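# step 3/5: fold
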Amino acid sequence: MAQEIERKFLVTGNQWKTLATGIVYRQGYLSRARQRTVRVRTIGNKGFIAVKGVTIGASRLEFEYEIPFEDCCQMLDVLAQKPLIVKKRYSIPFAGLVWEVDDFSGDNEGLVIAEVELESEGQSYVKPDWAGQEVTGDSRYYNSNLVAYPYKLWSNG
């Protein structure tokens, strides 16, 4: 069983951009049901499909598999709900963990979120200076919800 445990934070400033090179992600959802989401995405020139369960606290089941790139692109273009999520992801090692910073574009331009995956919900970690307010429990920041309610529509965005 695959368990994903992650914490999410809003990113402040631009200092983090000097710490890594980003790679473009295109992702879309075949299902955004509360009980399960089915996501397809490209990372560079590779394709992946993931099935995720309900988030409880900072944890959920997650199963992810590589699929043929061409199949993934066709699913994104034809089957996925729109708008697609487009972002540049930066993987930044910090204090023994890897922080992933997503700099969104398109309908979610201006949103920058950092995520850190943990081995347990109680695991201690050191937060980098550029990781601001925690938004782990705020469902507006779930990528699957950014499809239905993109950041550009938020009144405080």
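# step 4/5: annotate
The two ends are 37 Å apart (CA to CA).
# step 5/5: archive (pending)
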